[in-house]
Amino acid sequence: MPKIILKFESAVIKELPLTGSVLTIGRKPDNDLAIDHPAVSGHHCRILLQGDIYFIEDLNSTNGTLLGDKKIIKAGLKDQSVIGIAKHTITFIDDRPACRPARADAAAGAPEAVRIPTAPPPPRPSPDATASGTSPNLKRFEKIGALRVTEGAVDQSDFSLTENSTYIGKSDRVAIKIKGLMAPEVAAMIARKSGAYVLVAIKEGYPKVNGLSVDKERSLNEGDVIEVGSTKMQFYLKSA
Description:
- The structure is a single chain.
- The chain has 240 residues and is mainly β.
- It has 2 domains: 2-94, Tumour Suppressor Smad4 (Sandwich); 143-239, Tumour Suppressor Smad4, CATH 2.60.200.20.
- It is 5% helix and 43% strand.
- It has helices spanning 100-108, 127-130, and strands at 3-8, 11-17, 22-26, 33-34, 45-50, 53-58, 65-67, 70-72, 74-76, 81-85, 88-93, 143-151, 158-161, 165-169, 176-177, 188-193, 196-201, 208-209, 212-213, 217-219, 225-228, 231-239.
- It has a 6-stranded antiparallel sheet, with no helix packed on it. Strands 13-12-22-21-18-19 form a 6-stranded antiparallel sheet, with no helix packed on it.
- β12 and β13 form a beta hairpin.
- The longest helix has 9 residues, at 100-108.
């Protein structure tokens, strides 16, 4: 079955099988694949199956969609095609055995289509909602999660977990940058789901919670100690 692989830097974030004829991608949570990044439009692009060929189609996004190094409106996909969206990449894997060469040739020759207009974007949040730099989504929660650094060399001592996804690693692109020669570019992610927080291991077994290695993911409770390499941080809740 064809699938896509979402990556941030070189770290695999998610694999998703293409079970239907359309898969939507964007920042909003109603997408089939939601990417929480300010450079990603609410409904950014979609992958659709037409006949026997999969296509990537930009949905009038603000920053565009790349196929390889080329900005596209609509283009055919073949096995190992790489889609670029903001700082993320999506690799298309087509493992269907029948007529694979013919599919690749057809996809390579697929013409670009006229940009399809989409509904106008929703109104921007009011100045009061963003004046402090805090996401307006926080109004839904009485408290937000935060990390207090208790050990290790980190640029700041306290981090508020205001986004739906907060990455930890030594890459310059992550929100919580740790130090260390052996530290991975992206080690872990803290996801916020309906007011609860979950630590997701990007490098399996590398992050720890209360001294125990995390292979997949683990829910966080107030007071938990997260250990990523030589850095330790305590999770707590504070008023939004």
